[in-house]
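Re: weekly structure request thread

Next one in the queue (123 aa):
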Amino acid sequence: MGTFGILGEGEFGLLIQLAITALVIVSMWKVFQKAGQPGWAAIIPIYNLVIIVKIANKPLWWIILLLIPIVNIIVYIAFAEKFGKSAGFGVGIALLGFIFMPILAFSDAKYLGGASVQPPPVH
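Done, posted below.
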């Protein structure tokens, strides 16, 4: 088994990684646009975190929380709630962003603005 044995051999594994990266960038671009932010911010490292914190309506220093594993979940919960999603969905974005960010981007979820909102109860 080669260096890329877990993901596939060589070029195939690289293609899968590139496809996932492209999907995440396109998804973040769409989510940022839904929130009235510039989509191009999705491709700028660190600045995309600034936009996530801004969308979550949190102080700018919360970017530090995004850099701390496990604690970053708090920011992503606030981020998800701004689109009417549950705390569980926010945890999903934090842990499985390559799955949950496209769901948010390509769903009919709307940005609910700066006010604090609670997602609808699950029945």
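The chain has a mean pLDDT of 88. The two ends are 48 Å apart (CA to CA).
Next request, please.
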